[in-house]
């Protein structure tokens, strides 16, 4: 039996305050810092410890985000170098004939993102998409925010919530539920398909409406532009860059390289392409340092507030709470989820709603995976009590958790996309809100029908 303490209540109140401030479009960094200090003090009863927790929470949060900060910074450095030698024009030219309209751009970029995300996960996929397809997409009439939404909905929403090939998410959920992975995946398919189809179609119509004016402006700019032809050395670098990234994809598929290993491969390739891009320029020794410095400055400028925001929400995870507060601490979001499960009347409607709510609640940490063990355990308990299908119950929780925390509807989970495409994370989350929530509601209704 979970007993809520003063720190639990304070954590919940601070979440509500932060969400209200986000809706009011106010900055939340100061409230987040105060919230971490307050939780630290209420958890320990010691002001000195609370001050230490304030630092430790931000440090651990930064440590967890460091890999994504590095990969994004390297990709930005590489992209700037390619842009300076004109290689970006050469690389993107073949795609322009296919990405002539917003409709073609939407579906081609969307399904390419989904395909890559299925096999190498979304974060590395965003790097590949961003390095090649941003300019052609913008020239077709799609604005940056819409492009970021397409990548996040198809990749971090649809592909990651299914995760049918790498099977990271379903393996965690299935293990906690006590069922085989293939059983969970089969039960997940109709719920996943509903959430994905509804979200993608709504986003498509929103994007199509918003792209008409953008399309006219872009075509005017393109027609009037008189860009010089890049030199032969830029052509060589372009061929090397494209060839290496294609080789990366082939190696990932052949040797099942994914997750952190895939990110490392993309990052290493980005460094090689960066060096190739600087070697064809004058003062290449200084240029290499310049590009790296510029990339990391941009990356840190983007991630600095995200590190602080994540520090608060990651306290909802048990592992983070133990590392930051004390070895005996429990995750506040996990405890709140357990408390809800103990105080709600049980039937198929409330059980589905509870799993859905647990998914959303644990997803607020910015990690769609952190709540999956709890979701699986709750599904196992309720299914035996009410004689319901545990795979279906667990599926709605998994989908809600990953759509919320994976990188679609909360700003601090969309930073990978926002940094690569150079769009504010809040704008991406705002645009994704209606499609993603509509998809999740539709998925909940299908879950009730299947039960």
From TrEMBL:
Membrane listed as a keyword: yes
Residues passing through the membrane, by range: 6-24, 31-59, 65-83, 104-134, 146-166, 186-206, 232-255, 262-280, 295-315, 356-379, 391-421, 433-450
Region forming the signal peptide: none
Record carries keyword Transmembrane: yes
Origin superkingdom: Bacteria
Keywords linked to the UniProt accession: Membrane, Transmembrane, Transmembrane helix
Protein name: C4-dicarboxylate transporter
Organism, scientific name: Thermoanaerobacter thermohydrosulfuricus
Taxonomy of the source species: Bacteria, Bacillati, Bacillota, Clostridia, Thermoanaerobacterales
